[in-house]
Amino acid sequence: MTEPLPPLTEILASARVVALPLATRFRGVDVREAVLFEGPEGWTEFSPFAEYDDGEAATWLAAAVDFGWAPQPAAVRAEIPVNATVPAVAAASVPDVLARFDGCRTAKVKVAERGQILADDVSRVRAVREAMGPEGRIRVDANGAWNLDEAEHAVHALAEFDLEYVEQPCATIEELGELRRRVKYMGVPIAADESVRKAEDPLAVARAGAADLLVIKAQPLGGVRRALAIVAEAGLPAVVSSALDTSVGLAMGVALAAALPDLDYDCGLGTASLFTADVVEPALTPRGGALPVGRVSPDAGLLAAHEASAERGDWWLERIARCHALLEAR
What we know:
Blueprint: H1 8-13, E1 16-26, E2 29-39, E3 42-46, H2 54-69, E4 79-81, E5 84-86, H3 94-98, E6 106-110, H4 118-132, E7 137-141, H5 148-158, E8 163-167, H6 173-183, E9 190-192, H7 194-197, H8 204-207, E10 213-216, H9 224-234, E11 238-240, H10 247-259, E12 290-292, H11 300-305, H12 310-329
Parallel strand pairs: 5-6, 6-7, 7-8, 8-9, 9-10, 10-11
Antiparallel strand pairs: 1-2, 2-3, 4-12
């Protein structure tokens, strides 16, 4: 963030804490909470996951402030092609999930879910391939849950479904680099997500030659401009993804994708389709497989309808205050 940090009172003056239900349990949650507030440039979002500590969450606040208080980089495209996102559901539920993503030609499939086995992943990915046909693109995301040998075995088991790439199959950069060497002959690229957004040095994975592309998210990386700088320095193709944001937060991701010089992959920004309610009317969901570029504003009625409980609201506002103090100290 390069703009001066606004006073905490200015941020809290318009802050609204919301809780949005999900159609399918995703990333261990059934309800997604977020804080929305309005700056001079428009509405913005702060929604780090509850388990993140204040140090990590402060970077998300920096991103929210940057989007709300600073002019954003110019867009070089008017719409962003996006992928469908398939949670770790049973294979029989795949068609219903995909039906929520209008016109999407690519699907990202969650794998390596705790409590499941590789056979569950194979069954789910097979169901996605059957639903999308041979021309559909399939990528899988393990969120770093496999060790090196498990990842190699999984790539072999899933390769028959013609994977576009495997996202964060292992947790460490060293494992990613070794896996990339082991599966290179199969032509399955390795994408880094957590090794970028949760790393002290987001460029380390690129310098190590441990990934073929980067998955970038605006909030965890500190905002649109910082994310663009990371991509430029890394010199690798990038996929812009969401962190299960509301439509307001998704607009920040869309701004990032719109400003990238090159956009070779469909982006993971269609995740509002996983909600059964949102704060924007209409919600920022895919139409014909794409999202329009531009800011959005929440609907007052929807903000009221989905307001979080007083207890949760206080929890979030106190969290903002702590993160704001950390940013001031920096």
